[in-house]
Design goal:
By secondary structure, the chain is an alpha/beta fold. The protein has 20 helices and 20 strands. The protein has three domains: 191 residues, Rossmann fold (3-Layer(aba) Sandwich), CATH 3.40.50.300; 179 residues, P-loop containing nucleotide triphosphate hydrolases (Rossmann fold), CATH 3.40.50.300; 143 residues, no CATH class.
Length: 557
């Protein structure tokens, strides 16, 4: 597997921070591939740190993270500690916090060399602290690294006790710019409550939602919410965030009046029912799920392309988490009938006005690392933690840095070139019109073709048939197609295939190209072994490619 550039930089920075401080935290939003990064990091450090413990806060994540880990590190041995099994014997142990924090289980944890904390903004909680204290008591030199999408906690508790530095931060806007997440289309809709909301008292965690309900849960506002949703996103799978259960019930009723297939989940919803509802949203006819405080974190349904905020967020991190539920790309193999180019965000609670849209601070240059591999750093003026220069919120104490400039939001299509340039593979324009792009490796090839303003990512693994993995914007298609090659190839194979750019066409390639009607001029420097491979991969599979494209386009008409 070949990591994305920012993943490689994050791991490099994490290694340096662990060696220097014995602890660090890495901030990366949903969709950045945190599990891939922590898996790659463990794979690199397992020779130094013989025993690794990975903490998760939910049962389903324990098995999920283990499965992803083994794809990155197939030769390492893993075991699980959760409600159903308690195996501490392997090199890498995946443990659920609620299970491990029980004293009888902690007594068996033993000597740990490296502690990895997933969703590490939870690490200030007593259950986490109990585990961390026990592990450091057993081994004071144990190294600790956290991965999180949320830089600060809602309760205001800092993470200084666990982490004194942040090694790396990748922002949502960067992933949007590079095509790994869809672009949010944000609408702030004034229902005359901005001044009232600004006067609502704040609790440790958020606004007082009882007071918010008194402002937001009015029939005229609920009618307006549904009206605006029908106008701007009526054909989209949608998640709605409400202030209280009563608010959610009233808004649900308003959706039902308009014959919208909808349901509600709250903290009181039985886990089996919640599972069925969310499955219906992702795979069934259910179009809208109204929720209270349960879908903010750890929930992903890629078909969701609309997020409705009918409550304010006192913390920007909460708003970002909510909007992030709708930013994931759709896997066309799983959801072949869904095209997702963007995510509509309807904000009735003025959160975007208060915090700024997550896509308005785009850094056109991206996060760069110096030639020596060390990112430029700064100290947090509030807690003193060492942070990357581009961090806007301290993940340790929550301090917000004031930006001295407003970044220009430029044409997103420039990303196509940027991503292709950063790819470890050479992308070739077969059409000379930028409508048919191809890249090849030893174990597969990728193709991006654009038809009727839609771009399709077509990939083929060696000894298998071509398949469509993405339908959407060109930058999304390129990102998915490039990711496929990263998964099936290695750094060495990518380097070897690029070397073909300096080699002439082989006689066999010439024969097949001539057979397909190409006129090969020996003086034409555009032809080389790599370009020939890209063309022939396409031509040899053209019949199958045309077939799946005709089938897919017929679904659109």
């Amino acid at each position: 597997m070949i990591l994305r550039k920012y993943q490689h930089n994050a791991i490099k920075s994490a290694n340096q921070a662990l060696d220097k401080f014995n602890n660090t935290i890495c901030v990366a939003p949903t969709g950045a591939g945190k599990t891939i990064m922590l898996s790659a990091l463990i794979g690199e450090r397992i020779k130094k740190e013989k025993k690794v413990l990975v903490l998760q806060h939910r049962d389903e994540l324990t098995q999920q993270n283990q499965d992803k880990f083994l794809k990155v590190n197939p030769n390492l041995q893993t075991s699980i500690v959760d409600g159903s099994q308690k195996d501490f014997s392997k090199e890498v142990v995946f443990a659920m916090v609620q299970t491990l924090s029980r004293q009888n289980n902690l007594d068996n944890v033993g000597f740990i060399d490296l502690l990895v904390i997933d969703e590490s903004h939870h690490s200030a909680a007593p259950s986490y602290q109990k585990i961390i204290d026990t592990i450091l008591l057993n081994n004071p030199n144990c190294k600790v690294i956290g991965f999180t999408a949320t830089p600060n906690r809602g309760d205001g508790k800092g993470l200084k006790k666990v982490f004194n530095n942040c090694c790396y931060q990748i922002e949502v806007s960067s992933l949007i710019r590079e095509g790994y997440l869809v672009e949010p289309k944000c609408f702030v809709i004034d229902v005359g409550v901005k001044d009232q909301i600004s006067n609502v008292k704040k609790t440790i965690n958020d606004y007082d939602m009882g007071d918010v309900e008194k402002i937001m849960n009015k029939k005229v506002i609920n009618e307006r919410v549904v009206e605006e949703w029908i106008d701007k996103a009526g054909d989209r799978k949608t998640i709605v965030f409400c202030s209280t259960i009563s608010h959610a019930m009233d808004l649900l009723e308003e959706f039902e009046k308009n014959d919208i297939e909808c349901a509600m989940v709250t903290g009181d919803t039985h886990s089996d029912l919640r599972k069925n509802i969310l499955h219906g949203l992702e795979y069934g006819e259910l179009q809208v799920v109204v929720n209270v405080a349960v879908l903010t974190e750890g929930f992903d349904a890629p078909p969701v392309s609309c997020v409705v905020l009918t409550r304010p967020c006192s913390f920007k991190s909460t708003m970002t988490q909510m909007i992030g539920r709708g930013l994931r790309l759709v896997d066309n193999q799983i959801h072949p009938k869904i095209i997702k180019k963007d995510c509509v965000v309807l904000d009735f609670g003025c959160s975007i006005l208060n915090h700024g849209s997550i896509d308005e601070t785009i850094d056109l240059e991206g996060q760069e690392v110096l030639a020596n591999g060390i990112a430029p750093e700064k100290n947090c003026p509030q807690c003193g933690s060492l942070l990357p220069l581009n961090v806007r919120e301290c993940p340790v104490c929550g301090y917000v840095f004031i930006s001295e400039r407003n970044a220009d939001i430029s044409d997103f299509e420039m990303t196509e070139v940027t991503l292709m340039d950063r790819s470890p593979f050479r992308w070739i324009d077969l059409s000379e019109t930028n409508c048919l792009l191809s890249a090849s490796g030893f174990k597969g090839f990728s193709l991006v073709t654009t038809v009727k303003n839609l771009s399709f990512a077509i990939v083929k693994k060696k000894d298998s048939k071509p398949i469509i993995v993405s339908v959407g914007t060109k930058k999304q298609a390129i990102a998915c197609a490039d990711d496929f090659l990263r998964q099936v190839e290695t750094n060495s194979s990518a380097k070897k295939s690029k070397e073909w750019l300096n080699d002439p066409l082989t006689e066999k390639q010439k024969f097949h190209l001539l057979r397909h009607g190409f006129k090969i001029n020996v003086l034409d420097m555009n032809w080389n072994k790599y370009r020939g491979a890209c063309w022939l991969n396409y031509l040899f599979n053209k019949k199958e490619i045309d077939k799946i494209m005709i089938e897919r386009l017929s679904c659109e008409t």
